[in-house]
């Protein structure tokens, strides 16, 4: 069989290491020219396939692809774009297959989270129905760490490290001011429905009394009275109080403490702004001076303080996706299987997309402290290896060096336009 082309797309919110997965795909594909001729990347994710706007990664030098390993963001552009169900919008899926046919694409690599694994699964089903030979692989990515089956998700370890490091550093700042000035510091982190990122803030504290003193998780319904009592207690006992709050923190009736009021293409509420809500409570009910920070995109793009474990795993899942595809596996995703906590050991296995699509993995009860405001030893054991190791990017004139891709378009072969 002659070599066919591969399509690779980044999907959903990007991470500090999603480009390392891209490098894993491209470098591995380049080692198998007899099976994979070119890797075409979707400009702005799946939209690039629908609009036949693809990037020819063969035009990039080996050095540029290597540089992806230390470049945050999505090098080809990502998209929050949900393909509807086959019944609702078959035309979209047929268009994908039409583009793939025109460019002799035999491999589809989709790098994203839960929703994207659903899309990859549907594309594999339709290709089969349409008798178009297409090998479909999901590649895991999400800072939220909420994909099932895999022990953890590439992207998470680096956010976790950023949040733990920032909590530790900011805590020293607040402590030094606490006698005469700021008493409470609140750090807001991402995570939508799952509290993995907020839990990682807990790694900053080792001894009783260490910051963070309170973690507000989406898994634990927010109890204002108990929260304020704990803040007061901390200030009385330690002079200061550091709070890590998840953007997904919610009241017992499910309402988010802060919802921006907008929704994305997947129907997810846009979150953000919970820190000022919590800070206002502290000020108005307790009268303490506060500072707060919203880590927002800083946490997701902090490649300078990435976890070496995370970078390694992000590359490994990209590489494994290509290897699985070449072994003839389809409708699967490489997953990380932990084989030991200490020493930390892991390997890559494959799991069916149908087991992963549209499912969210929350922080289990055994990882949450009894009072709901912290993490347990078991949680610490799980999290610690994921933030381990540093993988600093090269620096030029004091700033991290990043990849500069040419992103040359693949010449369109279809005369039809597709509007998304
Ligand atoms: O991809 C997950 C995530 O990083 C969430 O934690 C966050 O709520 C969301 O993306 C933000 O998405 P966007 O960048 O599309 O606003």
Silhouette: elongated
Bound chemical compounds: 6-O-phosphono-beta-D-fructofuranose
Beta fraction: 15-25%
What is the CA–CA distance across the termini? 34 Å
Number of domains: 2
From the alpha carbons, calculate the radius of gyration and give it in angstroms: 22 Å
Order of helical and strand elements: EHEHEHEHEHEHEHEHEEEHEHHEEHEE
Structural class: alpha/beta
Summarize the main sheet.
Answer: 6 strands, mixed
If helices are DSSP runs of H or I spanning 4 or more residues, what is the number of helices? 12
For the record, what CATH class of the largest domain applies? Alpha Beta
Nearest-integer average pLDDT: 95
- Low-confidence parts: none
Give the helix level as a range of percent: 25-40%
CATH topology of the largest domain: Rossmann fold
Structure, explained:
This protein is of the alpha/beta class. The chain folds into 2 domains: 4-141 and 305-359 and 391-400, Rossmann fold, CATH 3.40.50; 156-303, Rossmann fold (3-Layer(aba) Sandwich), CATH 3.40.50. The protein contains 12 helices and 16 strands. The strands form 5 sheets. Strands 1, 2, 3, 4, 5 and 6 form a 6-stranded mixed sheet that branches. The chain has a 4-stranded parallel sheet with strand order 8-9-7-12, with helices on both faces. Strands 10-11 form a two-stranded antiparallel sheet. Strand 13 (332-340) and strand 14 (345-352) form a beta hairpin. Helix 1 packs parallel to helix 11 (308-326) and helix 8 (224-238) crosses helix 9 (274-286). It is elongated, with a radius of gyration of 22 Å.
